[in-house]
Design goal:
By secondary structure, this protein is mostly beta strands. About 15% of the residues lie in helices and about 45% in strands. The radius of gyration is 17 Å and the shape is elongated.
Length: about 160
Amino acid sequence: MIKEKTRIIPYSVNKQKVYFSTVMDEHNFSREIIYSSGEKECDIKEYFKKSIISIKSLQLAKTEKCLCFVNPDRPTEFWENSNKIDEHWIDGKTYLIEYKKDTEKHCLVVVLDYTLEKEVIIDYLEHNLLINEILFMDELSNCWIKKINSNEKVS
C-alpha cells in the first residue's frame, strides 16, 4: 500500500539570534532560534534557559519574521523536567530564496526542520504562490525550532 504524501503547510514564525554563555564553558555561543509569532520574548528567554544547563548570560537580537515548515509526522513532544537541548528544540536550516512572480523579484526567508528536503519549499512556492521562477536558494544557517506541546497552537 502506498502512503499518501503528507501536505506540509508553513506557518509564520519569529527568527531571532541568541547570544549565550554557560557557567561550565567560558566561550560565548550564538544560535538562531525559531518560535511562534504569538509568543512573548520574555517567555522565550525562560524557555531557552530551561534548555541549556547552567546558563550564565543570555541576550536576544532583533526579531525577524519568516515562514517555517515542520514535518507533521515528526514527534513534537515537550518534556517538562529536562534540560537537554534536543528535548526543547528541533534542528533546522534557514534559507534565503529569491524568486520571480510575474515581472517582480521577491525575497523570502524560510526555515525547514532537519527531516525535510528543500524541495518542500520549491513545491510550496510553485503551487501556492504561483511563482514564475526561483532565481536562487541559499542555505544561510543552522537553527533551533522550538518544540510545541499539545496545548499550544501554531499560528
